[in-house]
Amino acid sequence: MFVNKPPMGFNTWNTFAENISDEMIRETADAMVEKGLLAAGYNYLVIDDCWSKRQRDPETDKIVPDEKKFPNGMKAVSDYVHSKGLKFGMYSCAGVRTCADYPGSFAHEYLDAATFAEYGCDFLKYDYCYKPKDADGALLYRKISMALRSCGRDILLSACNWGCDDVHKWIRSTGAGMYRSTGDISDSFVSFRDIFVSQLDNFVYSAPGCFNDIDMLTVGMRNRGNVAASGCTDVEYRTEFALWCMFAAPLMLGCDLRCIDDATLKLVTNPYLIRIDQDEEGHPPFIVREGWNNMRNIYARVLSDNELAIMFTNLTDDYAGNMCFALDEIGLPISSGKALRLTDAFSGEDLGVSSERIQLSLEAHDCAVFIAKIADAK
Length: 378
Ligand code: GLA
Hints:
This protein is α/β, with parallel strands linked by helices. It is built from eleven helices and 18 strands. The structure holds alpha-D-galactopyranose (GLA).
């Protein structure tokens, strides 16, 4: 499947880990529709690790769902998810066991791809735990990709090898639609900041076809669930979501959508930020000004329709202060007679035309994001 925009959806891991069930998946599917998340673009509902029994069926060798969690089997769950207009995602692993010690797909790739097709699966997250030492990781992703391409269903491959083995150099060639580039996120500012900064040199490899997945969002978790850590403030969640959008990351929500709070819902359905994330041209951002070892950077990204996205970040813990760049630095010299009409991406407010320079002040952990349209200078 050719993935032309960063995939969007929900994944069970961040909040639920092994506490997944037929009922909670159906309730989540209902919530995605009722709360407008599907309408905003979140169309994949992905079940992560811990859905199967601990061992394969001794007769068929197939992975089998845990009947305590999924008493009606996976096809019934998938049918329900599809009946809501959503797509259904599942999880397996390139190694012999999954990270939570359930059967992995190593040496069972074609059998498992056929099983996922029987379930009506549209998306497969494919992890990297328990990979035999002498197995070639790239070949394992090629193999599952070929197995999925042979199984009779269009299934998006979501590779998850945490950035090992210089994955950005070869993952596009496997046919995967997205690839995890880092270790696991937890619900704290430091966690998402470190993950984001670790990928600054690699976002140029993220483009239509295969997007750099910097992990499921913790936005709105409010320190509940499996990856709870120190939790984040509203400002920090705003920064997390905006960074993911600015860098065209897949937007996989990780909070409990059945009880998502209003502030989180408003943030994750923000049409300006989603428009940036999903921009059809898929160009990478560039650093306009680097500051404090990437803690106070200004980024710009060329978008479709003669627009740009501009983001100011203050990822320091305790410094507030002015940040500024001249339009010349993004290729709009005064002599061009051109300027930028700015819209605040958080509020939607039209801020009018800025000529020559853009300047503002940010508190620690905060950010500002603008959609800028090329306009005539005043
Ligand atoms: C790994 C992945 C996580 C999650 C768990 C499940 O740690 O990186 O995203 O899928 O496995 O066990």
